Amino acid sequence: MPNDIDQVLGQKTWAVVGVSNNTTKYGYKVFNQLKKAGYSVFAINPGLNSIDGDPCYPSLTALPKKPDAVSIVVPPKITEQIIGECASLGISNVWMQPGSESKRAIEEGKRQGITVIHSHCVLIHTRK
């Protein structure tokens, strides 16, 4: 998985599914850290219109551009749905934050040809 981590971190445009405007939540921390690390980042949360001045989109399908990678920060049952959306959109890199993954989501992602990172925190891997 280390080579896969490097490959996914090499992607320039990300979407964070499960963004929060609560600065103590991981959805906020992941979104903010990816931006600080120099990535172009889309926020995904159907309950928010914007976060820190950036537009927030209700779904991956609603994005103006397909992201190269998706970071998922939602409960496992929602992650399982997001994997299907990624596959249908041709998104081939997914990072499941600890706590968002499920065996079913991981297996389905791999079956769909998606590079799936799990059991690793993107916050740790993007600190500079």
Automatic annotation (TrEMBL):
Entry-linked InterPro entries: CoA-bd, NAD(P)-bd_dom_sf
Residue span, CoA-binding domain: 8-100
Taxonomic lineage: Bacteria, Bacillati, Bacillota, Clostridia, Eubacteriales
Superkingdom assignment: Bacteria
Position of the signal peptide: none
Name assigned to this protein: Putative CoA-binding protein
Annotated PANTHER family: COA-BINDING DOMAIN-CONTAINING PROTEIN, CYTOPLASMIC PROTEIN-RELATED
